[in-house]
Amino acid sequence: MGNDDHALIRSVLAGEKDAYGLLVARHSQSVFRVAFRITENEADADEVVQETFLRGYRKLQDFDARSSFGTWIYRIAMNCALDVLNKQKRQTVVPVAEEYDSELPTVQVADHAAGPDRLLLSQEIETRRHAAMERLTPTERVAFVMRHLEDRSTDEIAGALGIARNSAKQAVFRAVQKLRQSLAPLWVRS
Length: 190
Fold this sequence. Notes:
single chain; mainly alpha; Rna Polymerase Sigma Factor, Chain: A; Arc Repressor Mutant, subunit A; 2 domains; 8 helices; 73% helix
């Protein structure tokens, strides 16, 4: 796939603009997946995907053919997702740990045979998890998602965030510590 990507990039740079659509089609699903995991919002993830490929198109002449287009566009997606998170952080106030909004969108994966108490607990866990993720800094959130949901290496996290390897490790560590602290009351009950 890498050689095909490079051929498509050469075509785009040679003036064949439609070739970029093939790159978008090939990589948009993985970009959307990571954007959704970071933003936890479909509309924001769509915005990240659009901005990622727009930035990628504008900067395509700067692409280093020695690397993978997928890795390059993934890093752009990380930056776009960070921009969205930073914009949201400036616009909203995060509720304190004891306050939970039952209107927050939740994803509930529950056994169909689960009783009402189990369903309620699942909803509470999801609400608290969402609130805990909101309290992470954008860097911590991206680092956590990349490491624990996308299974990326510390070097990949550092590269995507443009930080030192040790800083990436620390961001993942701080995120895990904050999430454990926020979700600890649930471990006692479950």
